[in-house]
Amino acid sequence: MSAVAYRADGVGYRVGAAQILADVTLEVGYGRVLALVGPNGAGKSTLLGVLAGDIAPTEGAVALDGRDLAEWSVQELSHQRSVLLQSNAVAFSFTGRQVVEMGRAPWLGTPRADDDENAIAAALEETDAIAFADRPFPTLSGGERARVSLARVLAQDTPVLLLDEPTASLDIGHQEDVLRVARRLAGRGCAVVAVLHDLSLAAAYADDLAMLHHGRLVAHGTPAEVLTAERIEEVYRTPVRILADPDTGRPVVLPKRSLA
Amino acid sequence: MRSRRAVVFTVLAVLLVGGVLASLALGQLPISPQQLIGTILQGLGIDNGWAPEDPTLTDALWRIRFSRLTMSILVGALLSVAGAIMQAIFGNPLAEPGVVGVSSGAAVGAAAAIAFGASALGGWSVATAAFVGALLAIVVVYLTARSKGRTEVVTLLLTGIAVNAFAGAGLALILFMSHTASREQIIFWQLGSLNGSRWIDVLIVLAIGLPCLLIGLGLSRRYDLLALGERTASHLGVRVERLRIVSIVLVALMTGVAVAFVGIIAFVGLVVPHLVRMMLGPSHRTLIVGSLIGGAALMVWADLVARTAVPLSDLPIGMLTSLIGGPFFFWLIRRNRAKAGGWA
Questions:
Q1: Which of A72, A48, A65, A56 is nearest to A12 (CA)?
Q2: Which of B236, B238, B242, B284 should be substituted to probe chain A, the one whose Cβ sees the most A Cβ atoms within 10 Å?
Q3: Residue B65 per-residue DSSP state
Q4: Which residues contact A152 (CB under 8 A, 6 or more apart)?
Q5: Would you put residue A189 in left (φ > 0), alpha (ψ -120 to 50) or beta?
Q6: CA–CA gap between residue A70 and residue A55 (Å, rounded)
Q7: Looking at beta carbons, which residues of chain B come within 8 Å of A105?
Q8: Which of B276, B325, B321, B327 is closest to B300 using CA atoms?
């Protein structure tokens, strides 16, 4: 296995009496895509917030590149990891392109600022956002906003990417695009952590899956290891069957339905 | 975009220079352009034949008209840039020192200083008291109106009502307790007027205001990032907490020092940044530069109207800006409501 980006060790997060995360231990490797899955309220976004450095865990510790996350300055972090949050509102009528340009802010005054133009163009290209890049962000549709926001994250050009539901409100074509981009980044050596709801999508593109339930890590491994019908039925409380993708052999999760 | 920016900045600069020239020439004291240039050259230490023979005339120009003009430029720039910065940290185009009560807070501080005789210690004490009042008000507004990194318009405006009402009561109490002489002084000052600006006052406003304007301009890129939300701004390397504190102090300083010497002049910080944003977009570098020039120009023209519209009398400029700014604010609320899909 290649170098480790994140090492979370017994991470817990508690607000008052509510235990939102408990005893989460996992590693995120460079060159890999990790999908965080689990039902609503399982603590996926909180875990992502802890990895991003926004939320200080109340128990345990997280290290990025072998150094405790609490020791990183805001600026150092901005050079190492980028974050896509679920809600991506923009105050005032900045255009899509201006929003993507803001992704380059960490590199202002560094030699890498020379790449600004290229990075912005490439990011807009990869997210298929060129067509509406010059429209004001508040006038874009939900899916278009999501793609511009993702382009902003890509433009930041960091070795680690944390994406909270990057496929929410995207059509099926753009969902696949986003995950293909994630794979390509991993191919270049980036570590990608994405919160995903679509288990089949996660299984098709992620190297590893981590399933959270009530703030605990209930499974962590390859998609085939994690996605068993038994486990999904227990965690999501709905009957499913697992098929194998005829082309890739990856698991496909199909809820059992009846027409009655 | 670049050429558009050049055009808008040029127009604003022309408006400002035109306003300055008109203000210099017009007024109760009639003076020819030639005499004016002569006076300025003489003031710069260059002797010439154009300056008026009568030394009381040049003296009056320097003491009254020039200082007042400089004050109006400074106050206009400070109030509109304070508005722009406040809107940036609240993420809301309706935040403005006058509307949310920061100016009233400053007024209470300044009035207390005047009423209890601290003004005898000079302009600095009034300015300091105004700053303290403004700071208290903006901290209260910020803590109340802001939750989870967002500012609800309704909460912001309700907080403004509460702060304004409370400050109004404080002002009334100070008026009630003060002597007749200082009472009159407070009432006229409170209406907002550039009348009687002295050079020493101008210097104080300059000493406090200029660094604030420069710092605000230096932070403009970070204000852009703040539009993405506080968490995302921090992911991009902005130390949000520090930015907020610095900005709040900046707004309090700029509003406080302006209010201390010219009273409450509302809506300038609302109207000017809004117009600049409409013309040049929301990027804060252009917004702050545009607001600086535009605010100065607006205030110069407004003050010219205030002192020449009615012969032999000086209208309170605060009244004038509110007469224009009030309806503009109504329009802005309606527009904001229709556009943003409610009160978000």
A1: A56
A2: B236
A3: I
A4: A99, A100, A102, A103, A123, B228
A5: left
A6: 10
A7: 221, 225, 236-238
A8: B321
Interchain pair A94, B281: CB under 8 A: yes
Cβ contacts of A228 within 8 Å, gap of 6 or more:
A242
Which member of A52, A92, A108 has the closest CB to residue B227?
A92
Q: Tell me if A119 sits within 8 A of A110, measured CB to CB.
A: no
Q: Name the burial class of residue B309, with classes exposed (0-12), middle (13-18) and buried (19+) by CB atoms within 10 angstroms of its CB.
A: exposed
Question: Touching check for B230 and chain A: CB below 8 Å?
Answer: no
Of B93, B237, B339, the CB nearest to A78: B237
Of A52, A87, A105, nearest to B225 by CB-CB distance is A105
CA separation for the pair B238, B219 (Å, rounded): 10
Query: Is the Cβ of A113 closer than 8 Å to some Cβ of chain B?
Result: no
- Please count the CA atoms within 13 angstroms of the CA of A234 that sit on its side-chain side: 12
b/e map of B47-73 (b: 16 or more CB within 10 Å)? eeeebbeeeeebebbeebbbbbbbbbb
φ, ψ of residue A61 to 5 degrees: the values are: -150, 155
CB contact under 8 A, A94 and B221: no
Chain A residues lying within 8 Å of B281, measured CB to CB: 93-95, 98
Strand partners, A213: A216
Measured over the CA atoms of residue A167, residue A168, residue A170 and residue A173, the dihedral's sign is positive
CB contact under 8 A, A54 and B228: no
Angle at B315 between CA B309 and CA B317, to 5 degrees: 110
Query: Number of residue pairs across A and B with CB atoms under 8 Å?
Result: 70
B10 three-class SS: helix
* Residues of chain A neighbouring B221 (CB-CB closer than 8 A): 105, 108
**Chain B residues whose beta carbon lies within 8 Å of the beta carbon of residue A85:** 229, 231-232
Q: What is the C-alpha separation between B89 and B139, in angstroms, rounded?
A: 12
Contact B236, A103 (CB under 8 A): yes
CB < 8 Å to B92, chain A: 91
Complex ipTM more than 0.95, yes or no: no
> pTM of the prediction?
0.90
Task: Chain A: give the shortest CA distance to residue B211, in Å.
Answer: 23
**B78, two tokens:** 């400070």
* Shortest Cα distance, chain A CAs vs residue B239, angstroms: 7
pLDDT (tens place) for every residue of chain B, 344 residues total: 678 899 999 999 999 999 998 988 887 777 777 887 888 888 777 878 777 777 777 777 777 888 999 999 999 999 999 999 999 998 888 888 988 889 999 999 989 888 887 656 667 888 888 899 999 999 998 888 877 666 777 788 888 899 999 999 999 999 888 888 888 888 877 777 888 788 888 999 999 999 999 999 999 999 999 999 999 999 999 999 899 889 999 999 999 999 888 888 888 999 999 999 989 999 999 999 999 999 999 999 999 998 888 887 888 888 888 888 888 888 877 876 666 544 43
